[in-house]
Amino acid sequence: MADRRKLFGEAALTVISTGGLRALTHRSVDEAAGLPAGSVNYYAPTRAKLEALALTEAYEQMYAIAIRTFGPILETDDPSTDLVLDCTTDFVAAMSAETGLVAARHALLVESQFDAVLREQVRTNRTAFVAFTEPFVRSKAPDSPARTAELIVALVEGLIQQQTLVATTNFHRSMVRAAIARIFGFTGG
Predict the structure, then answer these.
(1) Which residue ranges does the record assign to the Tetracyclin repressor-like C-terminal group domain (predicted)?
(2) Is 170 left (phi over 0), alpha (psi -120 to 50) or beta?
(3) Residue 56 lies in a domain
(4) What is the pLDDT of residues 106-156, one digit of tens each?
């Protein structure tokens, strides 16, 4: 059952990433999953449930990218400033290469303004990313590490969206790294 749910989440995300939210229908998800019409109805009987499946898959893909790019940080108790900057820059680059994922997630973020279930999914996942970031800013902002981490996550998300949805070319790695150093409050970088 979990495999089927994931399959439909991936298919829904693919539909949104290639055609936008207007393309998301039960039929289009079944087709993208390579299954007969009506197959997704058991797992997602409403359009809102299709959107929730797609958003779940979007965050699972983002977590996979985060685990891969932040792996070196996870292997140490006291990461250096350079390691934090390099891993964060790698995350921005990896996410910026995932234009379909970022575009679909952005569409779902907009939709979450009008859907309490999606909004709660966004909040829950944002909280997880903030909690992951908080240890790296604790020494820089000991009075408010959670709020500082929240701001960093928002600014990094904005940078990814800018590179993916707006810019015709991505910023050079050194520019991204310098911006991330400023976002984190690190001097130099």
Answers:
(1) 80-184
(2) beta
(3) yes
(4) 999 999 999 999 999 999 999 999 998 888 777 767 788 888 889 989 999
Q: Are 179 and 163 in contact (CB under 8 A)?
A: no
Which tokens in the block code for residue 178? Answer: 């310098």
Q: Which domain holds residue 78?
A: 52-184
Contacts by 72-81, CB closer than 8 A, 24 or more apart: 73/136, 79/136, 81/181, 81/186, 81/188, 81/189
- Whole-model pTM: value is 0.90
The domain that holds 177 is classified in CATH as 1.10.357
79 occurs within a structural domain: yes
20 is a domain residue: no
